[in-house]
Amino acid sequence: MGNLLKVLTCTDLEQGPNFFLDFENAQPTESEKEIYNQVNVVLKDAEGILEDLQSYRGAGHEIREAIQHPNDEKLQEKAWSAVVPLVGKLKKFYEFSQRLEAGLRGLLGALTSTPYSPTQHLEREQALAKQFAEILHFTLRFDELKMTNPAIQNDFSYYRRTLSRMRINNVPAEGENEVNNELANRMSLFYAEATPMLKTLSDATTKFVSENKNLPIENTTDCLSTMASVCRVMLETPEYRSRFTNEETVSFCLRVMVGVIILYDHVHPVGAFAKTSKIDMKGCIKVLKDQPPNSVEGLLNALRYTTKHLNDETTSKQIKSMLQ
């Protein structure tokens, strides 16, 4: 059907059909347009968020100076003036995570609804599947950047400490209106996570499952496992990989594959690593290890440190050793 071609059935694991999904060119059909347009409004801001995060330098120098010279009012003011606009950026990132969560829930609703199976949904609604992939791709890129930038938490901690000191001393603070106490608490929890966007998506997916009790949990987990299969097959089959016209599509597929594995592991009762899992974990890890090492270390670390069930007794020794 269109750009989505059935390519392979993985008989040894009886995992059902895998698909070639055209992540580069899928366009919405009439029935997809409403959800597609809602999610598109969110996704069009994603690249700008990543650029802002990539260029986030922090106010480490100004903060150190202010802490070392607590009685120098000019240095205190300089540090505060440096931190306030940065906290404005952090607020924007946090608010974007909330918009992304709403977008994901809309997509999950569309891709898991009856009467179609998740596989049929991915076949019929390629553009929504592509948007789901784009959310996962953004999420892993955001978290990779956040993990390597300790300035974010340092800046925010300094902001909160200074604000509470100002309140005690009844000093009016510009910037207080921007982030009130309740919002600051939520932002603190968000940035305390090693991978805050993934945590947002995991929580949103779990909440989606619990709120839709009439929908079998398998509808959601099968959607994720099918997407993982799609990516793995496209990456390990030269014939399909050669169809990518953009070299970035390989890293896109790798990130999406890892993202759906992590989501599956958080949402599925026994996780992605158990023998009963519908994800071929050995195959997925092998695909990652077949890439140039520098390009996938962050993704392997995401599997090592942000999954839920890797260290369970039900995980085979072979899988554990592959990820060591």
UniProtKB/TrEMBL annotation:
PANTHER family the record matches: GH09096P
Membrane topology label: Lipid-anchor
Residue span(s) of domain CYRIA/CYRIB Rac1 binding: 18-320
Family: Belongs to the CYRI family.
Primary location: membrane
Cellular component, GO annotation: membrane
Keyword Cytoplasm carried by entry: no
InterPro entries for this protein: CYRI, CYRIA/CYRIB_Rac1-bd
GO biological process per UniProt: regulation of actin filament polymerization
Keywords, ordered alphabetically: Lipoprotein, Membrane
Subcellular location: Membrane
Keyword Acyltransferase: no
Protein name: CYFIP related Rac1 interactor B
Top-rank lineage group of the source organism: Eukaryota
One MF term in the entry's GO annotations: small GTPase binding
